[in-house]
Amino acid sequence: MSIEYTVSKQNKIRQLRENAAYDQETVHEILDAGLVAHVAFVQDGAPVVVPMLYGREGETLYLHGARKARVIRLLEETGTACVNVTLLDGLVFARSAFASSMNYRSVTVYGRARLVEDWEDNKHALHVIAECTMPGRWAELRKSTDNELKMTGVIAIDIQSASAKISTGMPEDEDMDLDTLVWAGVLPLESRFTTLKPDDLVQEGVEPSDALKAMENTRL
Amino acid sequence: MSIEYTVSKQNKIRQLRENAAYDQETVHEILDAGLVAHVAFVQDGAPVVVPMLYGREGETLYLHGARKARVIRLLEETGTACVNVTLLDGLVFARSAFASSMNYRSVTVYGRARLVEDWEDNKHALHVIAECTMPGRWAELRKSTDNELKMTGVIAIDIQSASAKISTGMPEDEDMDLDTLVWAGVLPLESRFTTLKPDDLVQEGVEPSDALKAMENTRL
To answer: Are B173 and A141 in contact (CB under 8 A)?
Structure first.
């Protein structure tokens, strides 16, 4: 059995509760499948949402950006941050507009954001983000310079609570609609990497590593 | 020439300014390509972000959800809402971790959220959302019942300001890194509809309409 996040006012899913999950395993699986997180913070009392690459290690999400970026400065000052990762898997064509919907995997995480200031922790966090977005790439690249590290801000969000919501499969129509002569079903949406394309400046004879080639044609 | 949104503190892009655009045409194009918006609001002083289907008509975004859903209730009470739509187009493998990045099309919209209460406006908004997400489907379906409409909450966000950020193409490495024997380039990510799958209850002889078939194998 996977550990469950405590259900509170904050993370409780109220609509389509049958699609909700609160276990760590499901939440981690979706976080690990996604690449872009939508991170919300408050600026002058108003909400702002920003897309960011991220990495997960255990119960911590790492985000990075320019050290001076608004999102880094404001997350540093914010209390609880909210992060959503959603993968859209298809459109569900039901027999009524009301029952029409989408298939998706979605996770919402709440946690306190903190700036990672310690030099070693900072490098570790960047390594985690790199491994989650470009597995194996970190080891192929030169070390970051001190100046590069100084220009990069890293935010850690330790997960306080989280929820997952997953919708799969076919429309759920009202019985009264089942006789209608309207087609119903799903149109899957696939997010898939295609084929590596080199830039013009790659040195002669240099090929992509096995780690990079392993990403080709994989799905999110 | 396309009309430009006024650049203010709210919508000004500070990082990678060369990727910023403020013209309506670019903003509309990305909004029309996307399917899921990430909508941020404030609950008890803390930020919350929720993924939602949406539709655009002119300078208005429409969102819908269960009438009683938190996001509908809180958007109704909120001042300015913030909405982000991001399409990830690939990973950019540079010759340093610092220069590594992603290719994407992203739009952030700010505007006042209001509940659409008028019955006819409500139906119109649902029609717009349907046309934007499932073009042509609305005309194939029965009319929504009064009860279905009562259970659906519609939020309109009139765009006050917006910005687009687009990243395409190859890594931009420092000159000092160009001699390295590391492969560099991009791995494109494609989000593509595949093939319509009927549910088991479709009446014999009923085929998907041309409008639905036209969506097969298209990309976001």
So the answer is: no
Provide the 10 A C-beta neighbour count for residue B9: 9
Measured between beta carbons, which residues in chain B are less than 8 angstroms from residue A181? 203, 206
A70 contact residues in B (CB cutoff 8 A): 14
* Number of inter-chain CB pairs under 8 A, A vs B: 291
CA of A41: which chain B residue's CA is closest?
B47
8 Å CB contact of A49 and B108: yes
Comparing CA positions, the residue from B10, B167, B31 lying closest to residue B104 is B167
CB B11 within 8 A of CB B110: yes
Are B99 and B93 in contact by the 8 Å Cβ rule? The answer is no
d(Cα B1, Cα B16) in Å, to the nearest integer? 23
Q: What pairs with residue B219 in β-bridges?
A: B192
Look up the ipTM and state it.
Answer: 0.95
Determine which helix (DSSP H) or strand (DSSP E) holds B190, and give its type and residue range.
strand B185-193
Check if B170 contacts A (Cβ < 8 Å): yes
Per-residue pLDDT band at A1 (split at 50, 70, 90): low
Domain boundaries, chain B: 17-192
Classify residue B68 as exposed, middle or buried by CB count within 10 Å of its CB (0-12, 13-18, 19+): exposed
Q: Give the helix ranges, DSSP H, for B88-167.
A: 119-133, 146-151
Sequence-separated (6 or more) residues with CB below 8 Å from residue A161? A5, A6, A8, A10, A11, A109, A110, A111
Amino acid, single-letter form, for residue A47 = P
Interchain pair B189, A194: CB under 8 A: yes
Question: Mean pLDDT over residues B61-66, rounded?
Answer: 93
DSSP B47-104: EEEEEEEEEEETTEEEEEEETT-HHHHHHHH-SEEEEEEEEEEEEEE-SSTTT-EEEE
pLDDT exceeds cutoff 90 at B166: yes
Does the pLDDT of residue A14 top 90, yes or no?
A: no
Tell me which residue in A70, A88, A130 faces B97 most closely, judged by beta carbons. Answer: A130
Minimal Cα–Cα distance from A47 to chain B, Å? Answer: 5
Report the topology of domain B17-192.
Pnp Oxidase; Chain A (2.30.110)
The residue with greater pLDDT, A160 or A71, is: A160
Instruction: Kindly state whether A217 is in contact with chain B, defined as any CB-CB distance less than 8 angstroms.
Output: no
pLDDT digits 0-9 by tens, B16-42: 888 999 999 999 999 999 999 999 988
pTM comes to 0.95
For chain A, say whether B202 makes contact (Cβ under 8 Å).
Answer: yes
Question: Residues A124-142: pLDDT tens digits?
Answer: 999 999 999 999 999 999 9
The pLDDT, as a whole number, for residue B159 is 96
